[in-house]
Amino acid sequence: MQENYLITVPTYNEAENIDEFLKAVFAESPAEVNVLVIDDSSPDGTARLVKKLMQEYPSRLHLMERPGKQGGASAFLQAFSWGLEHGFDAMLAMDADFSHDPHHIPQFLEAGKNNDVVIGSRLIPGGRIENRSFFRDLLSKCASGYCRVLLGAKIHDWTGGYNLWSKKALETIGVESVVTRGYSFQLEMKYKALSRGCSIVELPIVFPERKHGTSKMPPSFLAKALADVWRIRFMCKSESLQQFFKFAITGGLGTITNLLIFFLCADRLGLPEIPVSIGCFIVTSVQNYVINHKWSFALSMNKTPLSVKRWLSFLCGSLLGLAVNIAVMQIIIHSFVLPYKFIAQATGIICGMILNFFVSKFVVFRKKYVK
């Protein structure tokens, strides 16, 4: 169970909000919760007010001052790195303008006990955006639908910034590997967390308009985020390609093991071929399962222990791939005149391996999304 929490709050010209906001945060938070304010040299004196409050919360309130306005995305990422270095178990990202209501903090912490990522969602039943025009509300929903379709994932609120990230999730994503900024970094982190096997739940929140000041995110940031969805998709496709090559290498190692065992048992010891062949298949399926778990799909598994149930699923996928291999080989042999039959076998192997890879990636070695 998680015990040490850090609330990360980037600020720029939030002097009108910061005192009231931080007091509300501490009022809603249990004693083990710390707060880190990341201020980008606000000319309105936000950092000065935070320093004054640090006297009231000497061991729980922290301030990181950065030179110049560097943006909310880099502030959150730097805060996450700071939290990991200081041993916090989970980090809750919030804005200081009261658009992220501190009243939801206990709900986030409770949901975070059993999930790697908790997304504050405005777009699921129970969540809503207050005082927004019909057009802006429709724009948010269309943007979310666009991301869901293009990224092929069931998350509803992609651009929202009120989210809790466990230490496990941040280490799995790799904070230093996040390359997008603006709204896009929210998309990238959520998609990477989901695609790498983190358990995710969406928590309904009410998103009110800010009390004071003006929004730091112009509409152009949202437009850029929607364009960056393609970039994020491409990055994850590159990751899948790497997984496929590792999967193929693992299959090659399994073939070598299979042939070696068959040679020793059937040729050297004279044991019956069929039982030896079945034994080779079982042994190599165990070997392939372990290597794929620990190497090919290591990011998805993220220290998840080996299991007999998962191995049996992998074995079923292997048998399905073998069936496709044989079927494709037979179809080609009976449909075409080939100079060599091994061409049909090679084609069947490739088709079976591709199917086996997708079964492994999306069934065997992937944790399910939590609604």
Which descriptors would you attach to this protein?
2 domains; 9 strands; seven-stranded mixed β-sheet; elongated; alpha/beta; two-stranded parallel sheet; 371 residues; Spore Coat Polysaccharide Biosynthesis Protein SpsA, Chain A; single chain
What shape does the CA trace take? elongated
Name the helix and strand elements from N-terminus to C-terminus, one letter apiece: EHEHEHEHEEHEHHEEHHHHH
What is the CATH architecture term of the largest domain? Alpha-Beta Complex
Class derived from helix and strand content: alpha/beta
CATH topology of the largest domain: Spore Coat Polysaccharide Biosynthesis Protein SpsA, Chain A
Whole-angstrom Rg? 26 Å
Arrangement of strands in the largest sheet:
3-2-1-4-7-5-8
DSSP strand tally: 9
* Average pLDDT number: 85
The CATH class designation of the largest domain is Alpha Beta
Strand content of the residues, in percent? 5-15%
Count of domains: 2
Q: In whole angstroms, how far apart are the ends?
A: 21 Å
Q: Determine the fraction of residues in helical runs and give it as a percent range.
A: 55-70%
Which residue ranges are poorly predicted, with pLDDT under 50 across at least 5 consecutive positions?
Answer: none
Tally the helices: what do you get?
12
* CATH homology superfamily of the largest domain: Spore Coat Polysaccharide Biosynthesis Protein SpsA, Chain A
* Biggest sheet statistics: 7 strands, mixed
